[in-house]
Design a protein that fits this description.
91 residues; 2 strands; 32% helix; elongated
């Protein structure tokens, strides 16, 4: 995998992967729906994981583009070199 690269130059801000957070949220979602199925037939089921878990408490804090976006007057500049972008584009 030393030659694989991301196709789109977008990365997360802080914290790394959200895999554990998503696993925990889906376990809680399935558990609560199972409890409703077993005990409370009159109540409706949860339709979405976001009804059970707060996604704002997940590790990653948003995403950003590497380099300078081409947005005219709203463009911001950072001193990204070609080597920096290649480093962040590795998988």
């Amino acid at each position: 995998m030393s030659r694989s690269y991301k196709k789109v130059p977008i990365g997360g801000y802080v914290g790394g992967s959200e895999k554990k957070d998503k696993t925990t949220a889906n376990k809680r979602f399935r558990k609560m729906n199972k409890l409703k199925l077993d005990e409370f037939w009159d109540e409706e089921f949860f339709d979405n994981v976001r009804e059970v878990a707060n996604t704002y408490n997940f590790r990653k804090d948003g995403k950003h583009w590497f380099g300078t976006p081409l947005l005219g007057s709203a463009a911001w500049t950072t001193d990204w070199t070609h080597e920096d972008i290649k480093k962040f584009m590795r998988k």
